[in-house]
Amino acid sequence: MNISLISVFLWLTPLLMCFIAVYSLWVFYITVMSLRDKKEAGQFRALDFAFGYPTLFVGYIVDFVVNMIPATILYLEIPQETTLSSRSLRHARAQIANPDLLDKWRKYLATWLLDSIGWYDKHGGHTA
Hints:
73% of the residues lie in helices and 0% in strands. Helix 1 (2-40) crosses helix 2 and helix 4 (84-92) packs across helix 5 (101-117). By secondary structure, the chain is an all-alpha fold.
């Protein structure tokens, strides 16, 4: 009985960590996009500056980690970029003459991801 609980724990822990990392990235992304909109509207205050730039820094670290671990598993490739956005943009914009199933999967996943986060980017920097 103890061995099965240990094996379940060993399988669920990495999955839970990946979920927490991806969810954190989403929260940081929405926060940073909101702060960018406030800055461009001229509503960026000292408090926003004090909390915004550390949030941007931590968000970049989370983005890097998500790109290196969960996204590597999902895209089935070693990353060439440091952020998930740039990696997804590369796959979504890829024009491959004879795409195999893996290329189609990467393009589909990247397009879905960019469409999902595109709602929060008013400038279109995260759209394919």
